[in-house]
Protein 1
Amino acid sequence: MQSRFEQFTVGVEISPGWVRAVVLRFFNTSRSFDVLACTEQEGPHLEEGIPGDVRRLTEAIGAVCEEAGRKARRDIQHVYCNVDTQGCTLEYGRTSTRPVRGQSLLRRLVDLDLGGEDRQIATRRDIEQLERDIFRQKRGGEVVFHSDRMFYSNDEGSLIRGDPERTSTRSLTLHSSAALARKSVLNNLIGVVRDASLEIGGFFPTAVAVGQCLLTDDERKIGTVLIDIGPSACGIAIYQGGHLRAMSSIDFGARKIAERIAQRHAVSLSEGERVLFSYGCTSVDLADQSPLEMKPVCGDERDHKRVKIKRQTLAETVQSAYQQLFERVRRQISQMPHEIEHPMMVLTGAGAQVEGVLSTAEDRLGSSVSNMRLGSPQLKIVGGRFARNLDVRYACAAGVAICGFKKRETLPPPDSVWSSVPYYKNFAGAEQ
């Protein structure tokens, strides 16, 4: 029986290749979290929209939640999910062979020029009316709501924070079918989760979820850049004043680095990923001359000699890739709207677990950074100590669960376009 002094929630991360779930218990008296269970399951990569991907995703979500419920001794019925499907294709309940593209849900939705002295001023009511008109006319483009603040996406894919009461609409450009695609992807995710006999409690952007888990309240207030080097993309989120200020994404992740290893040494992609995380380092100075053996890319191993290289040779490939990645990150941050001269930086994600990544990032980004660290979950267990047993790869799922407790701050208002998504309206009404 659930005590009135504690609450339970489940966060599910849906990412290319993996589905993860975390069960958190929240103590009302101490305002702290306790991790009851965390589990993961391999899922489809969702990159090509091949038949069976949706079924495999449903099975993975069901299996991971069933396992998490067994470990936590809870019957899981409601979950919260992340909504970042960068680089994914998801098709659900469609007979057409043309898949629904779900590249980031927060990507290039509205191109808004905030400059110019003679700009027109629009009130929040005007923006809401524009939003309704877009859907009624079935045109592209949308306004992204985040609590009482608004964010707009520019051409580079960055979100720009705008004042709801003073926003220029003079140079508003609507990108065709972007808003409808967003709505379709959300409905697709709802359908997939419901097929796993679960109900959606709410959606949260991946950057918001990871920030809730990895950043302290002080870091979100003073100004911090969160760099999430994921499998298929590198996400960038800037926090300032306690809120998400801007976010963007670069199509360069750990899988692309593994692809370079695979291409250069004629091994499979899975073998490239294995050696990257087991033996890779981002600087040749950290590598020795010890030999490494890798499986050949094709054919029977008995007929092909194993690929032999030195660890320093591997480091040359990895170092070049990470230098290119952080150079692109530096350029992207300079283009994103923020007012922090020397922000803190927190690195996380699968790609941040490679040896030497912090020193390489400092070399490329350090001149404009006040401090830099690797992200680790900031969850506390009973007794006030950090939950060190929670691996960083569960940061997104745990952050989604935390956001479930703070849904009034992170979910859009009920009168936004999200209310047109099934099941959201009932969830928002229960909050009153």
Protein 2
Amino acid sequence: MIIVLLLALVAACSAVDVVTLVQDLESGTRGSQQLSREFVEFAGAVYLSARGPLGQELYRHTPAGDLVSLADFSHAVQLTMTSSGARV
């Protein structure tokens, strides 16, 4: 599943030089309280996890305002970005 998520991200942003874009992007609820969404910005786009029609999904939001579903996943996956040495 992590490999599929990584391939979807690389294909979506056409950034084959990215070292790693995987590991845990979590969102959900605690009790009745909605938790804030985690996100990562890369190459002018923002990647985030949110509840969608297929369950927990990974989305890409571009500066033009487009919101595209890239993948769905049933368990929490964290998104890590190490191309600049920063980890989210």
Protein 3
Amino acid sequence: MVPVVGSVVELISVTLRLARRIKTMAQTAKQSKRRCGLLKDRVGFIEKLLEQLKATRWVPDQATQATLENLHDALDSGQLLVQACQRRRTPWSYLTLFCSGGEGDMDGEFDGVDSQIDRAMQPFHISNLIVLLSLNQENFFMNVLEKLLRDGACKRLPQGDKDEIKKIMNDSDRHHMSPNAKKMLELIINDLKLGEVDTWGASSANLHKAGGISSNESDQLKQVEDIAKDIMELKKAEPAVNKQIGREVQWLAQLAQQVVHLTQHPLAPQMMMRHRDDLLHPMDDLLHDLEEARNLLMPKQPSSSGHGGVGITAAMKATAIYQVGYKIEYSLQVLPIVTMREFEMDRA
């Protein structure tokens, strides 16, 4: 049950504490250690996501607040399950485990918690994309300013105003400007005909690149979309090969579908942009993790000797799918949040 809190920030803090308790308890589980470890991994990514959300100056709507409450409820169920795993197995439970050939009844309970988290995370992702669209509408005035500058607004100013603008630019720290600010600076410099931009420590081309998506970033966006579509196609054949991991493959394909939707979002180019040189971009991780997921689903070719490679059990493959899927899920969730923060910095 979600505790009574005064604000969404408090709710995020309460949920973060719950996530950390689950991670701590999962490390000391006496039974279902594999599933406890997987839950710990997933909760760890949720913790990182909430930390990113907490860092934004963002006011959620009621629907998003309800989603956060559902996420807290799901983690609460996970905490109860991990608490139950602190008890050592009895002789009877070992017999049940042997007869079931798996982790016993607890496996189904972990599946239930995973599904509960899935139901909380998907609307959360959609809500963030909607918020991102609303923030983009606020860039309208920046677009108007750009049109005015391209039309020669600075060139038509009295000489005294031009000199004042030049002084302000000389006193500005270009290296800590947002991409939009750098783009506007280039337009002002060109409009005032200040000469070589290299006197600012960068070429005009570099300033322009900072304000928009590069061809490499555009290619990467297409690559992300193509690999996600490959995963969706591979999913159609995988359950027929190994029905034991059908649920995991289905879940991975659903994540791939969300990735495709993300790449087709109106603000996908903005999500690709490297806003800060020192920022490790989540899209890089997403591309790497999608490639790993695709390799997991690719049919394994027999070795040159005519024998297959080292065998991998269904449980091992399911674990690998979960591990890479949690990373994809995190990137999906955090990309809109990182972009929201960049919008805030552009407005600052």
Protein 4
Amino acid sequence: MPNIAVTTSGRFAISQYSGAMATLFYGASDVPIHIEDRALAHLKIVIATKLRRQESFTLSWRHPDGDAGGRSTIWIHPSIPLRFTFDDPEQPELNTQWIDDLMQSVNSTGGIMLLDEVLDTSRW
């Protein structure tokens, strides 16, 4: 069951560190970067869009609970290999608002920051 919290705007957010874990392999490193399946599925869309345009950017995330505190950042470039692996064999239903939020983040000077998904509760 995902961790759901209410944001300051009263909307619901799903933590990016809950549920099935996916793995991002960056460059020649065998060191995995673990990101929740659903979050990585959305990030993959944004990353592929930027790389298809031959655009480089940074990807940053906060370390999950239980890990050493802080955050990490990697430089994403079209010449650096990436591999995405997912625990869940099925592609999740994508949240276009979350993709838009991530695209706004990636187009900022700070690069993309892994953001929580905000759920549209008006559909419930």
